[in-house]
Amino acid sequence: MKIIAFFNNKGGVSKTTTCLSVGWKLAQSGKRVLLVDLDPQCNLTGSILDPEDEALLAEDYQGFAASNIHDALRPAMKGIGKKITAPDCVEVTQRENLKLLPGNVKMAEVETQLATAMNMGNVMPAMQNVPGSFGELYNLLGEHNDLDFILLDMSPSLGSINQVNLLLADYFIVPMMPDIFSVMATESLARILPQWASWSKKVEILELFKDDDIVYEFSPSIPKFLGTIVQKYNVKNGRATRGFQIYMDNLQTAVDETLVPALQDSGFMLKEDIYNRYNLKYTLAEIKDFNSLIAAAQNVGRPVFSLTEEDLYTQGSVAEAQIQNIKAFDSVFTELAVRIVEMTDA
């Protein structure tokens, strides 16, 4: 089983959409996939589940009555004397082999508690089990569901939950969009991720989460960077418009000259020949803006590339153009999923 985190400290870069789309394509290829919604905003959960579903409480959309990440970790967070067990995840009814562990708005409270504990000289005893509980949960879920992949949809922050989960992942992908703020976020990641790697090594050396009283030991490692996914840009005559291309070039420069060297020094990179075999320049895919198709996809709870003509709000030549775009998106995400499998098998 492989754990892949979708992570960027900048919001609005289609991180959740990409996580769902990649998971869908991996499942379509026969892989058994679990999506985990770690973001307290629960956007991944909302994009898949209907709040009017009988399994949910419509009046409390972000605190689902069904199994969710917060309830699954509750024994460790509350120290209630019970062990973590694998919850029954939600079957994504429209896609065989794909499951979801829903999010919960209460994860924002865990963020605050965990940050306080991890930034103190001695970790608070009541919270010592929480970092390791995430890894224990993922192992249990993997065994219970015979999973090939767990995909983590992370919040756009540099908080403690993201820090712990990134260091529990095997790989990570950085979705981004061509604007000045993504360039700034890339430079920020180049500063922060090496700090997280140093903290990981400190945890191991000092055995901070390996006391005899700790039920769930936390053993962080350094995940490998698979690459970026650049998206949400406009095209003209089959190419990115000039304004977007300028920022795409700036993003590539920031990745090549700032992010990658920092990741190399901290052990986050795969062997260079793995990137070179795809001629990637560390970019897994470039995906133009979905535009009006995103509304249709959200309405049916499926990725854009799975839409049919019956799902569209348009007719005639406009519908024909949208169908062609859907086919193009399908090709892009199919190739992306194949690339991810090959890189993680290398």
UniProtKB/TrEMBL annotation:
Record-annotated AAA domain positions: 1-192
Pfam families per the UniProt record, alphabetical: AAA_31 (PF13614)
Membrane-traversing stretches: none
Alphabetized Gene3D superfamilies for the sequence: P-loop containing nucleotide triphosphate hydrolases
Protein name (Swiss-Prot/TrEMBL): AAA domain-containing protein
